[in-house]
Amino acid sequence: MKKRIKFGIIGCGVIADFHANAIMEIPNEAELVGVTDVIYDAAEKFSKRHGIKAFATLDEMLSSKDIDVVNICTPSGYHAEVVIKAARAKKHIIVEKPMAITKEQLDSIEQACEENGIILSSISQNRFSRGVRMTKKAVEDGMLGRIVCADIYMKYNRTQEYYDSGSWRGTKRIDGGGALMNQGIHGVDLLQYIAGPIKSVYAVSKTLVRKIEVEDTLSAVVDFESGATGVIQATTSVFPGYPRRLEINGDKGSIALEETSIVRWDIDNSKYEDIVLQPAMSSSASTPTAISTDGHTRQILDVIRAIKTKTKPLIDVNEGRKSVDIILAIYKSAEEKRTIFLVE
Ligand SMILES: NC(=O)c1ccc[n+]([C@@H]2O[C@H](COP(=O)([O-])OP(=O)(O)OC[C@H]3O[C@@H](n4cnc5c(N)ncnc54)[C@H](O)[C@@H]3O)[C@@H](O)[C@H]2O)c1
Questions:
Q1: How do strand 198-206 and strand 340-341 relate by DSSP bridges?
Q2: Which residue, 54, 105, 64, is CA-closest to 81?
Q3: Is the CB of residue 145 below 6 angstroms from any atom belonging to ligand 1?
Q4: CB of 8 shorter than 6 A to ligand 1
Q5: Closest ligand 1 atom, residue 284 Cα
Q6: What is the pLDDT along the chain (344 residues), one digit of tens a residue?
Q7: For the CA atoms of 59, 60, 64, 67, what is the dihedral angle to 10 degrees?
C-alpha cells in the first residue's frame, strides 16, 4: 500500500476549501492532487489557490490513476449521480452531507458501493469531536441510567441572501429540503448516534419567513426504540440564531452540549475526571462558514485508516443514510399529518 493516499475534490464551492485545508493538514498521510467542477473557471481558480491540478472534466479525474479518493462537494441533489460514477471508476469516496436526498438515490448509492467494493464515508464531522465522543461513551456505559429524553434544538439564522446565493439552495429538487435537510442533518445524526435508533416521528413543518419552496421551520416529536422520547427542532429563520443544543437526560444523569462543547455534565460519581465545561467555541448558528476543519480532518484520517486496513470507516453507507432516512420520515409525517414509523 502506498504511503500517502491521493485525493481529488469534485465541486469547488463553499465547503470544498474545508476539504482542501483538512487534507493539507495531514501531509504525511494525504496528498491533494486536483479538483474539478462543472464550471472550469471555478476549478482553475481553486487549483491555483491550493497549488493543485485542475481536471477539465469529472471523467478525466475519475480516469486518473493518480487519484485514490474523491471528495464530493457538489450540491446535495447531485451527490448520487457523482457517487455512482466514482464507484464504477473504483475510487473510494468521501461525500458531503446529506449523502443523498431521496430513498431511491440512497438505495442506488448502496448498490454501487457494494458492487464495486469501494469504501464510502458520508460526512458527519461532529461525530469525531471530543464532546460528542465522551457523551456517546457515557450513554453507552450507562452513566446516565435509563435515557428518558433526548432532544436537539437547531435555531439558526440563514438570511434570504444566503438562500439567493445559489440557485439550488432552498429547493426541493437539489437541496432536498430546508432547515432540517441542509443545516439540521448534523443534529439529527448526533441524536440518533447517541440516543439510539428512532422508532417513529410526528412533525409540523412550515415556511414562515424565508422565500423558499422548502421548510424554514420544523418541529418533530420523536419516539426512540429504547422507549425514550425526544424533540427535533430546526429553523433558519430566527434572530440572531443560537448554537445547536443537544440534551440527553437519564434517570441517573444528564449531559448538554452546545455545538460540540459539553456545557452541562450532571452525573453523580462521574468516572471521567477531565470533563471541562466550556461554551461553544465557534458556531454556524448565523454564519454558514463558522465551522472548523478539525472534524473533516479526523473523518478523512478515519477513511485513510479504513482503506489501509481494509475495514469500514466510522460513517459508512449504512451509517450515512440513517440521518437521511429519519429526515425523509419526518417530511412524510409533516406532509401526511400522521405518525411515521421508520420501519413500516
Ligand atoms: N459538512 C458541512 O458542515 C457542510 C457545510 C456546507 C455545505 N455542506 C454540503 O456541501 C455540499 C456543497 O455545498 P456548498 O455550499 O459548497 O455548495 P456551492 O454551491 O458553494 O458549491 C457547489 C459547487 O459544485 C459545483 N458543481 C455542481 N454540480 C457539479 C457536478 N456535477 N460536478 C462537479 N461540480 C459540480 C458547482 O459549480 C459549485 O462550484 C452540499 O451538499 C452541502 O450540504 C456541508
A1: antiparallel
A2: 105
A3: no
A4: no
A5: 3
A6: 458 999 999 999 999 999 999 999 999 999 999 999 999 999 999 999 999 999 999 999 999 999 999 999 999 999 999 999 999 999 999 999 999 999 999 999 999 999 999 999 999 999 999 999 999 999 999 999 999 999 999 999 999 999 999 999 999 999 999 999 999 999 999 999 999 999 999 999 999 999 999 999 999 999 999 999 999 999 999 999 999 999 999 999 999 999 999 999 999 877 776 787 888 876 788 888 877 899 999 999 999 999 999 999 999 999 999 999 999 999 999 999 999 999 97
A7: -70
Domains in the chain with CATH codes: 5-125+294-314 (3.40.50.720), 126-286+323-341 (3.30.360.10)
Q: Is the pTM above the cut of 0.85?
A: yes
CB 99 within 8 A of CB 122: yes
Q: Are 248 and 203 in contact (CB under 8 A)?
A: no
Cα 70 from chain centroid (whole Å)? 17
* Cβ(73) – ligand 1 distance below 6 Å: yes
With beta carbons less than 8 A apart as the criterion, state whether 280 and 261 touch.
yes
Of 343, 342, 320, 335, nearest in space to 109 by CA:
320
User: What are the cell numbers at 336?
Assistant: 401526511
Residue type, 56: A
- Ligand 1 contacts CB of residue 208 (under 6 A): no
Evaluate: CB of 153 within 6 angstroms of ligand 1. Answer: no
